[in-house]
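Objective 1b: paired records.
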Amino acid sequence: MLTLDAFSIYIMFCVLAPLVGAFTLLFLFLFEKRIDLLEKQTREIALERELQTALYNQLNKEIQPHFFFNTLNSILGLARLDRKTELIRSIETLSKLLKFKYQTNDNFITIAEELTYINYYLEIQKTRFRDRLHYEMITDPNVTKAIIIPFLIQTLVENAFKHSFEKHIGEAFLKIEVVKKEQEVHVTVWNNSFDSLEESSQEGGLGLENIAKRLELLFPDHNTSVQLTNLHDGTTVLAVFPFVIKSEKREGERTK
């Protein structure tokens, strides 16, 4: 025969068992929902990264045809002027540039590699403009291993030729400066024209707008900027982005 205490425990068990079961089912339901939510967020983050990568690659590819068109246009000018010796030299330089360009398919390169492009390009333009062109390159040795989006400096230099030097007769002065300030890289391109380069940013995503978007995609967690200034001595474009060594960027990608 059950005692009163045993009967009370039995009654309590009968009452609490369904409640415990209900709370257990509710917990499992909420836990499953949480797992589904986390999986959804993970998929969304992965999709967003894929879209950002696709956008970055698209913006990066938009620069390349523009660059090659301008370079070939410069060589065509030499052919029309029947400057055969300079034409051959320019074609050889372009061949070196193309060979260097297709050695890598990375979304970013080092500043040293970008400056190699610049030297090839300026060698072609020096052949074309002769004594009319004067340029100076100032590079902080500490920044050459840092990463940069492909064709950043190249685009700014091209714009100086397209929107300034090719439109006006007279001496063409160009100054390129790449320095490290605290934990940032400052790229400055100055030319002695008073024409604004803003129109270049409206040409199918090329120019300053393209650079700004690609910097944001490459450095999503840092502040980046592209500023154009017209002063009495000419036009200056300043691009600012974080100082990141190529090896550190690779390691950061692997740990994501």
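Objective 1b, second protein:
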Amino acid sequence: MPERIDIAAASVEYRVWGAGTPRIVMLHDGLGSIAQWRDTPAELADRTGAAVLAFNRPGHGGSTPIPAGPWPTLWLHHQAHLLARLLRELEIADPFLVGHSDGGSISLIHAASGAPCQGIVALAPHSFVEPVCVDAISAMRAEPSRIVRSLDPYHVDAAAVFEAWSGVWVSDDFGRWDIRDRLAAIECPTLVVQGDDDDYATDDQLWSTVAAIGDAAKGVLLPGFGHLLHHQQVDVVVDLAAAAYAESLGRAG
């Protein structure tokens, strides 16, 4: 069962695999939760020997507050601040971050702020808004009932999460969101991974993100993979993350 920690006005669920202070922190996607990581945290803890923490951002799973309407344009930046608070409260000083989609973007924003970070694996992150992503989410909003039903087992209020997430993504203000100009501040080793069949991004999302980070970044384009990389082949994701974690330990040593 998840544990819970209060951070400012939020009550955040989290879970740890392995013993000791977590070294690896996992951030789910825009409609995700701890449970939707499936076996990834457990297998990553087993492969690396490091304790792994995953948490539900507010509105996801059983974390609160529940959103009312679309999130604000800078919600990813707000969540990066919450991540920093969570790490301080749990005394995780130098985390290795594994983030998927919006969780990958939050990881990049966190590291670009100058916060300590051992390394990052960003799985299908966004660093700017592409029309293909807006189009895909707009199509989801046209028929939301199926999406909400699929999310119901994972969230206290799946409809509210879907409206908050999809509403901001298709907004005009968020269409101008672009963090590439700040990513050069990332100094920790960063692996950016994307599938070549991602419905929410073109290959330019991957390579322009890597280029914006610079020498600290490497990119991997996985043939035949879509957006939910860890749902397709968890072993591939764990292999990449475990190797990146081991490499980051070598650099730190």
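The chain is about 40% helix and 15% strand. The chain has a mean pLDDT of 96.
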